[in-house]
Amino acid sequence: MIQLHDVDLKLLRVFATIVKCGGFSAAQAALNSGQSTISEQMAHLEARLGVKLCQRGRSGFRLTEQGVAVHEATLRLLSAVENFCMDADVLKQQISGKLNLGIIDSTITDPDSPIPRTTQRFVSRGHDVHLNVYIGSPAELEERVLDGRLHLAVGHFPIHVAGLSYAMLYQEASGLYCGRRHPLHGSKAKGAEQLKQIGTSRIAVRGYMQNDELELLGVGKAAATVDNIEALAILIISGAYLGFLPVHFAAQWVKTGDMRQLAATQLRLISPFDVITRRGIAPPPILRAFIEDLSACSGDRPHPDSAQPAAE
């Protein structure tokens, strides 16, 4: 069995940074080290572990099979070390350390999101905290909370995963949109006629929302699938596809005339947004403090006119 020492932990942090950056060259700025130094450190780590962790050359940087396994173990180890440090702070009654927060993409324009207010409240308390924020899809956020890379995440999670706790924070409204170049943008059709034209159009969906979106439209198959909202907005603006977007996110393009909301009263989705944490794990003080502030800020939400349905 390999005995870990302080130098090994440092080398594992270097390894994790290299993988995160996608290679030795890209990691130089993050590590504040030259490529020769990083190469020496990796060679030392591989010698300590007795396995080849990565390959690099003209084909680019990639992990070996053993490297993938070591990287996953490294992330678990570093997460455990961070949690230990936070738990140790309880003894001195001080909240400090790193808080790893995950958020689904494109919520910056949502006035109902409590994250900005929570962050301001949390930071204003004077905690000695370094905040890491990761933007990802629902599946990515759930995976990272499960394996300990994230302490908590906020988003829409259509399918609940065993091992996670879900608590609803607020709801997000989505509507169906077309771009300026789409035939429906300038169409005068309404009611049943408009719905018929929608049913014959190409539909782009979010992968994690496709069942709800296609069912509401009465369409059996999507013409395009994306894993984030920005990609969906690009397809809609192209004029080639229709798709559901959060009302708050689409408002900026509706205002300029680059998008139009269709059948706003009939085609409207309401999605619950939850905060997820790992089940069965006692939360460290830093996480408890953030959740307390999140709970307090979730009940203090404005109700701007922009959240109302757009004209059809």
CATH architecture classification name of the largest domain = 3-Layer(aba) Sandwich
Low-confidence stretches: 301-312
* Gyration radius, in Å: 23 Å
Task: Kindly identify the CATH topology of the largest domain.
Answer: D-Maltodextrin-Binding Protein, domain 2
For the record, the count of structural domains works out to 3
Which whole number gives the mean pLDDT? 87
Number of strands: 11
Morphology: globular
The end-to-end distance, rounded to whole angstroms, is: 67 Å
* Strand residue content: 15-25%
Please identify which CATH superfamily of the largest domain we are dealing with: Periplasmic binding protein-like II
Order of helices and strands: HHHEEHEHEHEEHEHEHEHEEH
Largest sheet: 9 strands, mixed
